[in-house]
Amino acid sequence: MQSSTYPECLVLGGSPAWDSRATRARVGNACNPRDATRIAWHGTAGGTYFKSCMFYFCFLSIIGAAGCCSRRRGAVLADRYKTQYAPAVSGYSPTLTHHSTREAERAHDARARAKEACASGERARGSLMGSVAVDSDYGAPRELSPLQKARALYNPELPPCLQGTAVTAEYGDAATAADLAGAHVISQAFPHTYGQPLVHFLGKTRADVPDASVVTEHSAVRVGVVFSGRQSPGGHNVIWGLYDAIKAHNSNSKLIGFLGGTDGLFLQKTIEITDEALSCYKNQGGYDMLGRTRDQIRTIDQVKAAMNTCQFLKLNALVIIGGVTSNTDAAQLAETFAESKCSTKIVGVPVTLNGDLKNQFVETTVGFDTICKVNSQLISNACTDALSAEKVRSTRYHPNVILGEEVAASKLTIFDITKQICDAVQARYEKGKHHGVVLIPEGLVESIPELYSLLQEIHGLHIRGVPTESISSQLSPWASALLEFLPPFIRKQLLLHPGSDDSAQLSQIETEKLLAQLVENEMNKRQKEGTYKGKKFNAICHFFGYQARGALPSKFDCDYAYVLGHVCYHIIEAGLNGYMATVTNLKSPMNKWKCGAVPITVKSIVKPGCSQDILKAALSAMAYVTDMLTIMSSPSFAGQATI
């Protein structure tokens, strides 16, 4: 295939060179927590192929770090909005080619919430939980396209440590905080599940290893599984791997899926997972086998409902598939179950597009590999359209402007960002490059100091129960001025009620439209002043927030998710509670993958509203157990078994 020049991209939030595993790892590490996908502008400049300077603004939901802003500085920034930018952007409404994805998400949530539970008993419990009705077609056979059928034929593999039915559970040191004060804080919050040992699963054992146990006879188990949070490619394969594992060890075991996410868990809406039910969902994207919800297991009533369901169904374990918030809830649920002497064990699985679960134990999450590849193609398509004359032969991109975490670290304002983008556009024009693509992280709005401070004030008023229509009147003077002079569409989106995880609905805030207009306004100003001699700047906005969520998982994610499903079974078999399934050494061939389990409290107890004491203690605990699994699996580790 003929090589072509890589198109250049303006990147806010990390390099878009997604096509190699090493590069994806760098991108994941460079981006701030909750990496995922949202793309915003692409375009071309006037000249050879186009009549105007056009840039594609591609908005990626890679969420950045939060900035900060003083009130005095905020007042100055508000004045700048009023005098420089607000008049130009107040009526701006560019065409958003993928705007329907946002509207579809909003409409889907509204329709789902409007449905009623079928039975009167479900209505009674549903009113308590704010339930969403469970669609009757979850888990039903579906028609597969030829491409889906081809992907369904792929058979995931298992690493040697999980092959066969004789698997060793080897225990390491307790995951405790090095700082005694921090350990005390966490142990007080999680007295039953904090400080549990790390676990490493091995395929063979030696007779002289006293703390390694091999189980050859396996009793039948009843396991529940639920999707929690937004869908991520590969989620179905976790269920597939778990199902194959429990059936391989005892054919009488049952796997029970909860329909409609945590709402189905509260309402006891279930389906038994069978070979027939799985056949249409193996290696498939989405969560449509069971459905999902964005609600969490948070309130006392919800925790009680979840416990009642587990006890009523006599579940040996409940597997929660999701991201950091879902696993945080799993940790709290495990603690409550242990305190209440409920026999059901809680197991978490790291399945999310975001990067907020990555640590020394979770090298990547299920779905991240897929979304990198899918978004590479989407970005490539945008670049191809921007170039218009030559086809892009590669999905690798060479960024020429990177506005990543320096936005937060350097406290860059939205005006600073606008200037940097405009400078890059002008520099490209002077080199005869009349096109470009700008990648914007979804979390950029939280990295811009003045907007972050505004969001914090709005969030505080939401927590206090202030009605949305009254929020603007109760903001501080600078925040009120800033909000007033923002474009109406941004103003409305900033005032949206926080999501179920108590964070701003970043996917609904169209930062790309705001930046596109600010850049266009500045380029027009430079053109009038004679400092920019190009033709009129045009921006086309794209939002890639949901396109990859239902994509067919990559082979890596198919294997990774399937293996994690097997690991879940061995966690259950070992009688562990409050653990997350992990696989490490993922950069190596599968025969070198290392499977284990880590207490969820090591990573996931921190959530919005968590005290600083617990936050510091959690970080201390993570520092103490760094590379512990590597040490456990090394030949020098005492009691190491031969694999």
From TrEMBL:
Give an example GO cellular component term for this record: cytosol
Every copy of the Phosphofructokinase domain together lies at 222-392
- Is the keyword Cytoplasm assigned to this protein? yes
Q: Which gene encodes it?
A: gb17065
Pfam families under this entry? PFK (PF00365)
Keywords for the protein's UniProt record, in alphabetical order: Cytoplasm, Glycolysis, Kinase, Magnesium, Metal-binding, Transferase
Family annotation (SUPFAM superfamilies): Phosphofructokinase
Segments crossing the lipid bilayer = none
In terms of InterPro entries, this protein maps to: Phosphofructokinase_dom (IPR000023), PKF_sf (IPR035966)
A single BP term in Gene Ontology? photosynthesis
- The molecule here is called Phosphofructokinase domain-containing protein
GO MF terms here are: 6-phosphofructokinase activity; diphosphate-fructose-6-phosphate 1-phosphotransferase activity; metal ion binding
